[in-house]
Amino acid sequence: MTSNHPKNSAEGYAERVLQGDRRALTRLISWAENGDGRFPGALAALYPSLGRAWRVGITGPPGAGKSTLVNELALAMRREDLEVGILAVDPSSPFTGGALLGDRIRMEELTGDQHVYIRSMASRKSHGGMARAGVDACDVMDAFGMERILIETVGVGQAEYDVMGACDTVVVVMCPGAGDGVQAMKAGILEVADVLVVNKSDLAGAERLADDLSEAVHTRAIRSDEWSGEVGSSWTVPVVLASAGKAQGVDEVLKAITSHRAMLDSRGPNGLEDARRKKRVAQVRRVIDEELDARVWNTDELGARVENALAAGSTAYGIASEVVDDLLRGAAFGMRSKES
Ligand SMILES: Nc1nc2c(ncn2[C@@H]2O[C@H](COP(=O)(O)OP(=O)(O)OP(=O)(O)O)[C@@H](O)[C@H]2O)c(=O)[nH]1
Ligand SMILES: [Mg+2]
User: Fold this and answer.
1) Ligand 1 interacting residues, C-beta cut-off 6 A
2) Which secondary-structure segment (H or E) carries 153?
3) Taking the model in full, what pTM does it have?
4) Does 245 lie in the same domain as 98?
5) Are residue 65 and residue 21 in the same domain, yes or no?
6) Residues 234-258: pLDDT tens digits?
7) How far is the CA of 83 from the centre of ligand 2 (A)?
């Protein structure tokens, strides 16, 4: 296939991604990660090819066994001959030391597989950029042809929750011991779960935790039915016992993910498409926030105005609302439009 675009242009890289060039895939994800100005052009060229991948978020407290489960899920998906992308967002375990994907031997089984692409992404210096970059990375993998994308985050901060919010199915992994389910519920982790996995079922306390979670899920399902007025229509989050470390219960986790997908598909245009549109809106909002932030503060003029207003005795709220009003009226504060 001959290209109409220079090889190293944004469009050229996009074309190569669509042709299955893994180096181009890696490059574009780096652009997304670094907020490179060439990324939007590349993504625009990829946009028509998005939507095939099923995005599965895996989150939960540190050490619950997320990476081990991601590992096993990826192997199970490979047995179904699916192309699998893996994104570890801000992994607490470094690449070196072999702990990124749990067990080293199993990890090597994946890294040697041409149908698996593994990428880890560090949180960026600029706040809030991680969720945007994580979704961008998934978009690139989707366009590349990944049929399943597994995204691991440690379920703690807003950015991690935002990444999960962009997934089609969210799996929350917990395990017996430190913190347990009560803590998880307090942390609001249940709210993002489509599937709950109690991992380390080989350890004491796993079944009790699963029972507790089932009970909590049941209570919540009834409540949301009452609120929405659609009794019986909501998804009841399944609680699955597994031992990823012993490769047990992984098929059940996969089945729960598949059921969740089938449920969304069965809702027709109001299901998957609707859900994805809402997620896309959230991504646009993140991009707007990031761009506003960069463009508003990329000048000394506004900073000087704030300092002067403070010196004159204005409050933070007063200054902020004046500045926002002025911005919305079109004041530029020395900012330049992106094109100039
Ligand atoms: N007993 C038992 N241990 C497990 C199981 N699954 C994983 N582990 C162990 O739990 C530890 C943490 O596993 P990881 O997969 O790295 O957990 P993680 O949630 O990805 O951890 P972070 O990314 O660091 O938050 C490792 O020592 C695993 O070997 C299991 O089913 N049973
Ligand atoms: Mg991990």
Assistant:
1) 62-68, 91-93, 99, 102, 154, 199-200, 202-203, 243-246
2) none
3) 0.87
4) yes
5) no
6) 788 999 999 999 999 999 999 999 9
7) 21
